[in-house]
Amino acid sequence: MTVRVLTEQDWPAAARLYAQLHTKASFVADAEAQANFAKVLRQDGTFVYGAVLNGEVQAMTTLHLMPNVTYGG
Fold first, then answer.
1. Between the CA of residue 45 and those of 2, 10, 15, 64, what are the distances in Å?
2. What Å distances lie between residue 43 and 2, 47, 54, 73, CA to CA?
3. If pLDDT is split at 50, 70 and 90, which confidence band does 49 have?
4. Which of 3, 22, 46, 61: disulfide with 27, CB 3.0–4.6 Å?
């Protein structure tokens, strides 16, 4: 298993994982959802990592790096 930063090309795999968190009625892997995934990937300081096994994304997590205001940002 390897861990890597996901890209917009990983949307189909991400959509399959997101769908497991929702009922079919509440999540639609449509163009809007894909655009929102791409928007998250473009956020400064945000990284979506995927655990990949045999070329398939098995799990993912999001890391947000934020300035620390209390220590001078």
1. 22, 19, 22, 6
2. 23, 8, 28, 17
3. very high
4. 22
